[in-house]
Amino acid sequence: MTLEQIQAGLAEIRPRLLGFARLQLRSAAAAEDAVQDALLAAMEGAAKFSGAASLQTWVFAILKNKIIDELRRNSRNPSQADLDAEAALDEAVAGLFDERDHWADMPAAWGDPEASLEQKRFWEVMDACLTHLPASPARVFMMREFLGLETPEICKELAITTSNCWVLLHRARIGLRECLGLRWFGELAS
Q1: Domain spanning 3-74 has what CATH number?
Q2: Cα(73)–Cα(101) distance, rounded to whole angstroms?
Q3: Which of 11, 19, 168, 187 is most buried, judging by how many CB atoms fall within 10 Å of its CB?
């Protein structure tokens, strides 16, 4: 692949890189910085790009590492807005569970999830739902499900306990369940 082809490919995938970084980092400025760092690293390493993987896969791997580096730098300083949003999520889901943390009312069936996953609109709604999660649960969920980190790695990077990690994953899943229920499946709409 020539340098010009790599540059054109990078320009084409930049919006997806930026969207992914925004979801994880929760800051447009931090996302822009991470994407710029990833693109710069890709351009500097263009001679090493062998084409064994697609250009998109290669650059997303670079971005993934940049995001992890940024998360490591910022994980020890949660903002008050993050803490407030997490408290709001706790309050919003409080009535969904009984005193033994079991569903008060079982969620309704969502039909055929495979058909839903194939629709581009679903991912737009999923992105919106992820964006509105509180930072801590969203970060843990993204690290686990999108970045592919294992629980011990997440705990080490964020300096949290395994129990806290599972609680944050649970909160993220509940928040996503509620948001997708409203915005995609329409089960709670009035």
Answers
A1: 1.10.1740.10
A2: 34
A3: 168
Owner of token pair 């980092």: 25
Question: Do 3-74 and 80-183 have matching folds?
Answer: no
Task: Provide the residue type at 74 as one letter.
Answer: N
The answer to whether the pTM exceeds 0.70 is: no
Predicted confidence (pLDDT) per residue in 61-102, tens digit: 899 889 888 877 766 666 666 667 667 667 766 666 677 666
Residues of the chain with pLDDT under 50: 188-190
Angle at 147 between CA 185 and CA 140, to 5 degrees: 70
Token representation of residue 180: 């997708």
pLDDT value at residue 33 = 93
Helix, strand, coil shares of the chain, percent, nearest 5, are: 75, 0, 25
**CB neighbours of residue 6 within 10 Å:** 19
Third-level CATH fold of 80-183? Arc Repressor Mutant, subunit A (1.10.10)
Alpha carbons 118 and 73: distance in angstroms, whole number: 36
- Say what the pLDDT of residue 91 is: 72
Token pair recorded at residue 162: 């395994």
- Domain positions in the chain are 3-74, 80-183
CA dihedral over 34, 40, 43, 46, signed as positive or negative: negative
Radius of gyration of the chain (CA): 19
